[in-house]
Write a structure and sequence with these properties.
The chain is α/β, with parallel strands linked by helices. The chain is 28% helix and 31% strand. The chain is built from three helices and four strands; from the N terminus they run E-E-H-E-H-H-E. The protein has a four-stranded parallel beta sheet.
């Protein structure tokens, strides 16, 4: 099974669950976090704000599995 990552603002506590945390508060940092995901990441949790920033990228990919979490 692949790794799980989380992208967004206020997500630091997810590290306690073993999730790779990518704290991102600005659109540029959200894009940087998305583009830096490794090939071993199979699930990405996004805050709703991060998902809004990545809307175009999410529309054209089926990797990785993406779950939007309320922020």
């Amino acid at each position: 099974m692949g790794a799980v990552a989380v992208i967004g603002a206020g997500v630091a506590d997810w590290a306690l669950a073993g999730v790779r945390v990518r704290e991102a508060t600005e659109p540029a940092s959200v894009h940087q976090a998305w583009n830096s995901l490794g090939d071993d990441v199979s699930v990405v949790l996004l805050t709703d704000a991060a998902a809004a920033v990545l809307n175009a990228e999410l529309a054209v990919t089926d990797w990785p599995l993406v779950v939007v979490i309320p922020s």
